[in-house]
Amino acid sequence: MIPNTMKAMVLTGYGDLDKLEYKEMPTPSPAQGEVLVQVTATAKNNTDRKAREGLYPTKKGETTSFQMGGKPTLIFPRIQGADIAGRVVAVGDGVDSRRIGERGLLDFNIYGTNRRDINLTPDYFGHGADGGYAEYVAVPSDQFHAVANETLTDAELAAMGMCSYQTAMHMLTSAHVKAEERVLVTGASGGVGTALIQLCRILGAIPYALSTSDKTAALKELGAESVIDRSDMDSFVDRVKAATGGKPFDAVMDLVGGDMTDRFIDAMIFDMDARETCPRLSIAGASGGNISEILWTRIYLYQVQIFGVSHGTREEAEQLVEWIRNGQLKPVLHGAFRLSELHQAEHYFMNRDSHYLGKIVIVPDSRWEEHGKQWSRESKA
C-alpha cells in the first residue's frame, strides 16, 4: 500500500542548513512514462550544498544555481538528492507493470533533448525536479536502470550513483583519454576522484592520485599507480617526475581549481618532447577556488586543451550501468545517515577527517534498519 504522504527533507530557499526542513509531503504519482520508486538510499553530493548556497553562478556576483537552459530551474520548495537507489512500486501509463519490484539506480540527469551523445543544457533530479531525499520519487522509466547484482547492497548501489561516476566518465571521454596514458586525478578521495581512478583502469589508463599521505594505501588498493601528497605543492613537479619516471602527465582531471590549476599545467608541459599528444585539462570542480590566474601564453604556446565538464550523456550512463551490473566498478561507501539527520550528515561531510574516503548515503528513516544501519556513521558525527 502506497501512502498518500511521505517524509522528505525539503529545501525552502537559498541559505544555510536551516533551509532544509524535515516534513510531511504528498507522495508523488508516476506520470506517463514514469515509475514511482520507493527510495532505499541516496548518495550525498557536494552539489547539494553548493546549489543550496547558490554557488553555481553563471555571471560574476550572482547568487543562484546554474541555468544553462536560460531560466532558473531550482524552484522552492525542492527535494534534493540526485543519486537514487530503490525499488519500483508503481508505474505510469505506457510502462510495463512487470517493472514493479525491480531494484535499480537512477541516471540523475534531466536531459534537454533526446540526443544520446551530448548534453549541453544539463539539469538533474534534486535540482530541476524533486530528488531522493524522500521516501518516494517519480522518475522517467528509461532512466531508472535495473541492477540485480546481489553482491551490492542498496547503500553501495547508491554510492555508485551517476552524479559522481558520470561526471568522472565525461571528464575522461572529453579529454580523449586512452590506454597507457598517465592521468592525474585531483580530489582523489572524493566521489568523483575514486570513480576516476577506477574508470582509468577500465580504460587502460594509468591514474595518479593527488591526496594526503594517510590515504595512500586505500587509493592504491582502488587502483592508483601512485599517490602524490598535496600538502607540499612547492615541490609538486619534482615529485611528479619521481612518480612517473620523469614523464609529464598526459592529462589532468581537475576538481580543485584556484591556484592549483597552474601547477597542474606545469605537470603536463615540463618536457614537451616526451609528449605524443597535446596536454589536456578536464575541469569539473573548483573546491580550491572559483578563479584561477593563468597566463594565456602558457595555454596557446603549449597547446593546452581545456575541457569544461558538468554532466555526461545517455550513452555514458548506460555504459556505466553495464559496468556496475557486471562488477567492473566497485562501490566506495564511507557511511550512512538517516534522512531525518541530514543536517548532521552535512556537518560530518564539511568537517570530515583524514580518514574520509568515498561516499555518504542518506537512507529514509523507515528503511534504516534494512538499508542503513550497517553503514551508520551517526555515532561518529
Automatic annotation (TrEMBL):
Keywords for the protein's UniProt record, in alphabetical order: NADP, Oxidoreductase
Looking at the record's lineage, which domain of life comes first? Bacteria
InterPro entries assigned to the protein according to its UniProt record, in alphabetical order: ADH-like_C (IPR013149), ADH-like_N (IPR013154), ER (IPR020843), GroES-like_sf (IPR011032), NAD(P)-bd_dom_sf (IPR036291)
Q: Which portions of this protein are annotated as coiled-coil regions?
A: none
Q: What SUPFAM superfamilies would the database entry show? A: GroES-like, NAD(P)-binding Rossmann-fold domains
A GO molecular function for this record?
NADPH binding
Q: What is this protein called?
A: Alcohol dehydrogenase
